[in-house]
Amino acid sequence: MRRCWKRWAVSCGLAVGLTGIGYTQNAVALDYMAHLGSCEVDFNRDGRVDSVSFVLEGVADTDFVCSLDHTTRYAGTASQRIRLQRNAPQAGALRVTFWSHTSSNMPLRPNEAVRLRIAYRAQGFSNATYEIFASTEGLRTTMVAPTAQSTNGWQVAEVTLPARPDSSGAARVYINVRIAAQAGAAIGEIWLDEVRALSAGTMAHPTPLPNGLKLAISYLDKESDWLRVLHNYRWQLVVGAREHRLSGFRQTYPGTLYAAYAYFTGPVIHAWARHNDDIYNFDDVWNNRRHWLLRDRNNNLIFYDDTYYIDLGIPEVRQRARESLLDLIPRVGFPQYIFLDNLDVHVGPQRYAPPNYPTNDLWVQQVVSWFQQVGSAIRNAYGTRFLVNVAWSPGFFLRGVNGGQDAPGAAVIDYVGGFWIEHAFCFGYNATATNQPRNYTLPYGSVHEVNNWRAWTLRDEIRIATEYPDKIVVINPSFDWEQPNFRQKLRFSIALTLAIQHANTYISLDPRHPRRIHPEGYIPPELLIPLGNPVGPMQFVQGNLLEGGLIVRQYQYGVVVVNPMHDRTYTYTVPIRGYNWDRQIVDAGTQIQLPPHTGMVFYAAPEMRIAIRASRQSVRPGEEVSYKVEYFNDGLAAAQNVQIRVPLPEGMQLIGSVPAATVEGRELVWTIPNVAAGERGVLSFRVRVQ
C-alpha cells in the first residue's frame, strides 16, 4: 500500500504548508541545530549545560562556578551562568564551545551559509575579559571582540559564515565563548542562552497525521540521530529522552510535549539510571537501606525488569522519591510530565504475596498515599503531573467502575496528567503464539472479577482512553509482526484508536522486535489514511459501552468501523463510495462482514501532492533564485479552499510571485478555491538572498 496522503520533494530549504483540505499542515522552520543551545538541561548535575564543551586553559575547575540559572534567562526555562573568581600568579582562560548538530539525513552542505546567533549577558568583569567568536574549518569570525564591558541586560550577537567541510567531509560550525583571566585577582560573570544555527537546508518540516491523531515516541535516548527521527514525522509527545536530545527538539519543535522518565516501583540497577530514571538511588538503597526493599512470600527480594521492588509504605521511601523528582524536574528543563513507568498495583496474594501486605488492598492504599505525597509536591512546586503507564490495570483510575464504585486511583486523579496504555487493544510478544487483543468484558486471567477495576478488559481500556478528555492518553499497542495475524490486528488497533480518539489522543505503535528495524519509529501506511477530522462521537450499534457492540465513527472524508468483540460477527453497509485500507474502491451500499477484533476504514478524500523546486541548489548573498510550487490532487474528492503556504527563511527577500501571493509575516499564501480530483497546477516566486 502506498502512502497516499502527501509526498514531498523539497529543495533549497523551503517548506510548503496546506490548509483547508481536510487536514492541517503546519510549516515550521527547522532552524535549531546547536547541541543544547537553549541552555536548559543539566542531566548529570555538574552545573554545565549538557553536550557543550568546557575547556580549561591554564586555570583550575575551581576558578569558575557554573550553574543553570532559572531566574536570569533570555528565553525558555534557564541559561548557562559562569562566574569567574580567581587569584593566581599566571593568566588563564575557559573556552566554552557549542557545535552544530545536524542529522545524517539533513547535513550542512559544504560552504552553505549558516546564520549563527547567541544571547549573552555580562557584568562585573575586572582584570578579565570575555569574547565570542564563530568558527568553521579554517575560518574564525569575531562576534564580540574581547571586552570587560557590562552589557546592562541581554544582548544578541549574530554572524553568517560558510560551513566548511573538515577532513572527513562533514561541514560543521561552532560558537565559542572565551573567558580570559589575567594574573592576579580576576572576577566576572556571564550568562549564555539560545545558541542557534539557522540553515536553509533544514527548513523542510513534515506534517501532522491527516486524521486527527498525534504521534508519540519513546526510547528517543537510544537514537543518536534524533533530528532525523523527529524530522521524519511530526512527533508531538516524546517520552524518556536524555541529555542533549531534550531541549534540542523543544526549540525545533516548540509544540512537542516532553515527559521525563521515572520508575515507580523500585530502584533500577543500571548505573545510567541513578538519580534520573531511578528515583530511589539504587546504590544507597542497596548499601545502606536494604530494609526498604520488598520481599515476597518466600522472603526473597522481588526482582522484576531490572528493578528491585521497594516498600512504598515506608515514609522515607516517599520522601526520597519526592526529593529526587524535585531535583530532576529543573535539571531536564521543567517537563510538563513525568512518565511513571510500571505502576504495579497487583503485588498481593495472587502474585508476590509480601508478608507485610497480606491483601492487595493494603498495597493499593500505599500506592494512593505515594501519589498524594509525591504527586502533590511536584504539582505544587512546578505544575508537573504524572503520565502514568497503566498497563497493569487501566481501570485503576476509573470513576464508577462499570456501574459500581470508583476505583482507588480516582482519588489521586488531580496529580495525573495522562495515561500511557501499554499493550493497548493488542498484546504481542515473540514468545506468544499470536497477537491477542483483550476480550471486551471477560477479564484477563482467572483471578479478576468482571466488574472489578482489576479486570483488565478492552472495555476498561476504552473507558480510560475516553473519559478524561482533558488529559492526554497514549494508545500503545504491541505486536509480534512475524505472526500471520499481524496486519489484521494492527488495523484493528489503529481503527479502534481512530474510533475513540479525542483532542488529546496520541498513538505509539510498538512492534516487539529490535529497534534497529524501525529506528525512526514505526509508522505504517494505515496511520496516514486521510480521513480528516472526526465528526461527532463514536457510536455503538447493536449494543452499548458496558456490554459492547459494533463501534462506528464518522469523519470528514469517511467512516471508521470496529468490531471490538471476541465472540460476534457484524454485518455493516458501507455508506459511501471510497477506498478501503488497501486503496481498493468499495461502492456505497456494499455489505461487509466484520469478524471478531476487526477494524475497517472507508474514505473519499482530497489528497494533495506538493513539490517545491528551486532553479539552483546553492546561492550566495546578493544572488536571486526562483522556485516552482507544483500541486496535484490525487484523491477521490475535490479539495476546497486550498491554502498553500511557503515560509520565507530569514535572509530571503521576496521579489515577486505568480500568481500574486498574499504575504502574511514571513509566509507566502496562495488560496485556490477548488482543486478537482486529478487536477494539477503550478505556482512560482522569486527571492533574493540578503
Quick overview:
This protein has 690 residues and is mainly β. The protein has an eight-stranded parallel barrel. A hairpin with a 5-residue loop joins β26 and β27.
- With helices defined by DSSP (H or I, 4 residues minimum), what is the helix count? 7
Q: Quick one: overall form?
A: flat
Report the sheet-strand fraction: 25-35%
Instruction: Could you tell me the CATH topology label of one domain.
Output: Jelly Rolls
**What is the CA-atom radius of gyration, in angstroms?**
28 Å
Would you write up a description of this structure?
- By secondary structure, the protein is mainly β.
- Among the domains are: 17-28 and 606-689, Sandwich (Immunoglobulin-like), CATH 2.60.40; 53-202, Galactose-binding domain-like (Jelly Rolls, Sandwich); 263-341 and 352-383, no CATH class; 542-603, Immunoglobulin-like (Sandwich).
- It is built from seven helices and 36 strands.
- The chain has an eight-stranded parallel β-barrel with strand order 12-13-14-15-16-17-18-20. The chain has a five-stranded antiparallel beta sheet with strand order 2-5-10-7-8, with no helix packed on it.
- A hairpin with a 2-residue loop joins strand 23 and strand 24.
- Helix 4 (315-331) runs parallel beside helix 5 (360-382).
- The longest helix has 23 residues, at 360-382.
- It is flat and about 85 Å long.
